[in-house]
Automatic annotation (TrEMBL):
Any Pfam family matching the protein: Amidohydro_1
Domain Amidohydrolase-related residues, every copy: 53-401
Upper taxonomic lineage: Bacteria, Bacillati, Actinomycetota, Actinomycetes, Streptosporangiales
Keyword Metal-binding: no
Key words, A-Z: Hydrolase
Name of the protein described by the UniProt record: Amidohydrolase family protein
Record bears the keyword Cell wall biogenesis/degradation: no
InterPro entries in the cross-refs: Amidohydro-rel (IPR006680), Metal-dep_hydrolase_composite (IPR011059), Metal_Hydrolase (IPR032466), Metallo-dep_Hydrolase (IPR051781), OTAase-like (IPR057744)
Matching PANTHER family: ALPHA-D-RIBOSE 1-METHYLPHOSPHONATE 5-TRIPHOSPHATE DIPHOSPHATASE
GO molecular function, one term: hydrolase activity, acting on carbon-nitrogen (but not peptide) bonds
Signal peptide per UniProt: none
Origin: domain of life: Bacteria
């Protein structure tokens, strides 16, 4: 299948400059760029009249199966019902220009396979299965009065409880057995969990190191949920590749990020959305009251990390009906970063994090043909990415997939 984009302004993310020319896609890859390219017989041709072309976006922290902000309710729902919600959520992400997403717990190989086979519309899905949590940790969503541990891993849910070095090794191996692209570990308390404090640390260093060892043995990596500097620093010392959120990091954390060449994945929009709409979409009152502890700190943490040169990736972490705010993350980051740096976090930076440099997040010849055609310049105004009206076409694997 061939697609030719004619008369485009093509963004080079390394230089931050646009080049006038054409771009040809063949068999799902970018085949060539340049002036005056010829369309093969049967190719679809789009005359862009100077519209801007940028790589398809990558969201490195989503929960496509989180159909409600009450995560503890997911295991009681029919897996088929949750899958239907997931399909609709993924379709919305694709329509917003996200051609690849990294799921940070909840999605599994079934959703990834369904998307890859064309059974559902959505971004390419990099999944981790269930996040690993200690008893009473961020992935343990039982209320205080619920004593029985839910071990029905075939049901919907975002976490699995494992305590002790042997148990976490077995849990990590089990998620890797099912094809996990990465392993997620809960290394601190969180907003959506009912019985822990945001400022707690979770898992011993021996347990964290065991999880990292298992991921590295499988040539995979660990992403760690953590908020406070103390929790973030422990996770970095244990060898995780990415820290999710990191709202309360300090200068010591920044030094460790740089020393370990690790990534920070801020998720600013989810706190804004949870504060505004969380209760309407199922967030329990106790969790809603926790939001203020991290809401304002996230932007300061992003600015601290950015100024120091920490590697950054774009993430959103939205739940339930709040997924529709995904693109608002661009505007929030734009308060402390240049538009080019924000766009890099959602393309080349995220691609590097997930180990797909040169494959996605770029318009280089040979890369997967994931790209957006925009009416407007996102390097001047991040609203071009934040508002769907500016998105003329979404191309995924060389096919125009939006608008439908």
């Amino acid at each position: 299948m061939s697609l030719l984009l004619r008369d485009a302004l093509i963004l080079d993310l390394e230089s931050g400059e646009y080049a006038e020319g054409d771009l040809r896609c063949e068999d799902g890859r970018i085949a060539e760029t340049g002036r005056g390219l010829r369309a093969p017989d049967g190719a679809r041709v789009l005359d862009l009249a100077g519209a801007r072309v940028v790589p398809g976006l990558i969201d490195a922290h989503v929960h496509v199966s989180a159909s409600t902000a009450d995560l503890g309710a997911l295991p009681s729902m029919s897996p088929a019902y949750v899958a239907a919600h997931s399909a609709r959520t993924m379709g919305g992400m694709l329509d917003r220009g996200f051609t690849t997403v990294r799921d940070a717990s909840g999605a599994d190989y079934g959703l990834a396979d369904a998307q890859a086979e064309g059974l559902i519309r959505g971004p390419r899905l990099l999944f981790c299965g269930r996040a690993l949590s200690q008893t009473g940790g961020h992935g343990d969503l039982r209320g205080r009065g619920q004593s029985a541990k839910d071990d029905h891993l075939c049901c919907a849910g975002v976490g699995r409880v494992a305590d002790g070095v042997d148990a976490v090794r077995a849990a990590a191996r089990d998620e890797l057995r099912k094809g996990a692209h990465h392993v997620k570990v809960m290394a601190s308390g969180g907003v959506a969990s009912p019985t822990d404090r945001i400022d707690s640390t979770q898992y011993s260093m021996d347990e964290l190191r065991a999880i990292v060892e298992e991921a590295e043995a499988a040539n995979r990596y660990v992403a760690a949920h953590a908020y406070t500097a103390r929790a973030v620093n422990r996770a970095l010392e244990a060898g995780v590749r990415s820290v999710e959120h990191g709202n309360l990091i300090d200068d010591t954390s920044v030094e460790l990020f740089l020393r370990h060449d690790a990534f920070l994945v801020p998720t600013l929009v989810t706190y804004w959305a949870l504060k505004e709409e969380g209760r309407a979409f199922g967030l329990p009152e106790g969790s809603w009251r926790k939001v203020d502890e991290v809401l304002d700190a996230g932007l300061r943490a992003l600015e601290l990390a950015h100024r120091a040169g920490v590697r950054l990736a774009f993430g959103t972490d939205l739940l339930g009906g709040m997924h529709r705010h995904q693109s608002h993350e661009f505007r929030l980051r734009g308060e402390v970063q240049r538009p080019l740096d924000v766009l890099r976090a959602a393309t080349t930076g995220a691609a590097e994090l997930v180990g797909m440099t040169g494959e996605i997040g770029t318009l280089s010849v040979g890369a997967r043909a994931d790209l957006l055609v925009l009416d407007g310049d996102p390097l001047r105004d991040l609203g071009v990415l934040a508002e769907p009206k500016h998105l003329r076409h979404v191309v995924q694997d060389g096919r125009v997939v939006a608008p439908v």
